[in-house]
Design goal:
Layout (H helix, E strand, L loop, with lengths): L5 H18 L1 H9 L4 H8 L4 E2 H7 L5 H13 L3 E6 L5 E6 L1 H35 L1
Length: about 130
């Protein structure tokens, strides 16, 4: 029987943990809603269907490329539906799916928590940083 070195045990434990994190539903969801633009787009769609240009105007800091990529990702994940109206020019409209609508209360809760408590986080950071200087 061969013995395992501590480095090898750490390496195997890390590999197991990484495999777990790849499959962890919570970690995977945080990867989606943690994206800078995903939550903002979903919250804009909460009020109803929006055309691509309307979303771009509602999020002035997003580039056209990033808006397109994020919308495609949200569509792929099942949170957003895209409908095309064959007019000249073509009109593209985005709406929340049922899955997207179910995510809104969670995003609202995070937004409310942040509104109430980020001042405390900022104070804690300032206190921590002052103690380290």
């Amino acid at each position: 029987m061969t013995t395992m070195t501590a480095a090898r045990r750490r390496q195997e434990a890390k590999a197991e943990f990484d495999a777990y994190m790849d499959e962890c539903p919570t970690h995977r969801l945080r990867g989606i809603i943690g994206n800078k633009w995903s939550s903002m787009i979903l919250l804009r769609l909460e009020d109803g269907p929006r055309r691509y240009a309307d979303l771009g105007r509602a999020l002035p800091g997003v580039s056209a490329k990033m808006l397109t990529q994020t919308l495609r990702s949200l569509e792929r994940d099942g949170f957003v539906a895209r409908s095309v109206t064959p007019t000249v020019p073509v009109q593209v409209e985005y709406t929340l799916t049922v899955l997207g609508e179910r995510l809104i209360p969670l995003l609202d809760a995070v937004r409310q928590w942040a509104d109430r408590h980020m001042g405390e986080v900022d104070e804690a950071r300032a206190h921590y940083d002052a103690a380290r200087t």
